[in-house]
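Predict the 3D structure for this chain.
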Amino acid sequence: MTRRGFLGAVSALALIAILPRGAFALSDAQAKSLVDSVVKDINKVISSGKPLSSMIRDFERIFTKYADVPIIARSALGADARRASSAQLNAYTKAFQGYIARKYGKRFEEFVGGRIEVKDARKVKSFHEVRTTAYLKGQSPFAVNFLVSDKSGRAKFFDMIIEGISLRLSEKEEIGAMLDRRKGDIDMLTQDLKKAG
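Done. Predicted structure below.
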């Protein structure tokens, strides 16, 4: 499995854009605990032996549990979210959720035989960085940094950095490219997302 494959497999868990709402006193231990929980849930799906379709459904549950899906979707849509109606945003967000589950859930099979180990956490400015190491079959171990904040009202991932690649920004670029192909038509983007992934 390649590093790019790993990137895709877990990116959805790290694509949370944080709104400027009131923050709580998130500690390093709480940030690390959140990452421990996500990694535990991912590893459980990987080792379940379930068919891929079931793994994708499990992944969507993990995604909705740990992610602020409306905020992630708006972040991926960027400035165009401001011109969308409430109905358009709701439809787009639902389609985005399914798209993420299919796109990244399919990569779980490539994880079999690998593992992620959580190392430590530290405060960086207004967020916390949780360091982990990924061990995949046939690959050298590599560092993965999870960025965690509680500005959304509870502890959430808002990005994950793998070898200098921001997952949040990568997905924003992907959705932007899809929207460009539809000449800015959000309704058409939503229809495309229902079939993508």
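The longest helix spans residues 86-105.
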